[in-house]
Specification:
alpha/beta, Rossmann fold, 47% helix, globular, binds pyridoxal-5'-phosphate
Length: 492
Amino acid sequence: MLYTSTRDKTKKISGASAIVSGISDEGGLFVPQSIPKLSGGDIKKLLEMDYCERAAYIMNLYLTEFSFEQLLACAKKAYLQFGEDAAPIVKIDKKLFMLELWHGPTLAFKDMALTVLPHLLSLSKQHLNIKDKTLILVATSGDTGKAALEGFKDVDDTKICVFYPSDGVSNMQKLQMITQEGKNVNVFGIKGNFDDCQNSVKQTFNDSKVIENLKSKGYSMSSANSINWGRLLPQIVYYISAYLDMLGEEQISEGEKINFCVPTGNFGNILAGYYAKQMGLPIDKLICASNSNNVLTDFFRKGEYNIKRPFFKTISPSMDILISSNLERLLFYLSEQDDKLTSERINALYSEGRYHITDEERGKAKQLFYANYSDEDDSIETIQDFFDEYSYPLDPHTGVAVSVYNKYKKDYEKSAKTVIISTASPYKFPQDVLFSITGDYCGDSFRSAKKLYKKTALDLPEKIMELKTKPQRFKQIISTDEVNETVLKFAD
Ligand SMILES: *Cc1c(COP(=O)(O)O)cnc(C)c1O
């Protein structure tokens, strides 16, 4: 299987190269030249497999240069640390299910991909006989940073540097990052929001002086952000695996269509669902749930992506994003793989702050996606009502998804069975979850976590409570124009 770029279709590279490069040199994102289809035979085989085997099998359809056994070894290193089931399905009622993706080391769904990525990367480097050391740069809205740090800590010949918006993440998220252990890690706050953070890291990535300077030090840069194909690919697995689990437990019949409702920021998670659907998984609608930063809701409704709008800091910080990078891949597909047009649109986004798609493209998107958003009041009320009804605590991101699902149900009476993608443990956001459920606001994150435990009886992870006393190693906050020099210094 070869990969090409959303902005230059003459590019043809292997999956291994796509993973090592992260982003194409003209700025485009790598996409597979064709999307493999799941046959009835595939489904039969997959039904019998455990999560690691499913992951290896599905990744192998896209990474044909590796063997099933090689990919299985990657999957095992990643998912055996999750406990019994890496991605359990919890039945809420006859038509509603939760896919809990936060049983990994950092308690957020980013672990589903970032525990695998380091292994895919070393396999790819081996395959391509690359001897350069790797410098991983990450811009994070909160959860990617910690998951990437855990994934890459003390990996040979690798350094990782994470940048987060200094006032844009939750207290727990910040503590998780600045207390990170490992010899090869570094973490910086950036003055600005996530978009500023992401833009400056992207610039560093494409800066030829930085690239040359690093090369002289024996390093090449790579990205652990969700634009990397090695992030998207492991995410396709849990959509398919969830379907198979439901089929295996006879919650659905063969071929029955279901919805997935996804709390969305950078459009990475839901895009993996799009790939699963294109592979032939019986998905009815992909429900794109946004918070008050509802640029995607407007995009799907009006056909215009417009970032000239206020930016809101919300209780679901990992979705406080105006530029959803992975949408570029969907644009490429909606335009029938028109690389010139995709390129023009992204350029227009950066020069004029907006672009349009055609009515025909909007029609196609509408077949695939339902989009809506939940403001802060809606989200808080949803978390409270959901706990009252089902005794199930939602983290604020998953709260946004449930709120949007409720809106979807009102708009479509005969909705299919729906799986909510649950993206984080409530204990990553204990103050806001406690407040939503009880109306009781407590200024201290750790006391909030304890109170939340008393109220909900959901296991309180040791990894959260130990943050209180763990040494804080990384306290530096820099401005966006200091990123280049910071990266170069770290490489020394
Ligand atoms: C990253 C994240 C999201 C958004 O996922 P995208 O792939 O960026 O759309 C939602 N919820 C949580 C908890 C996250 O960490």
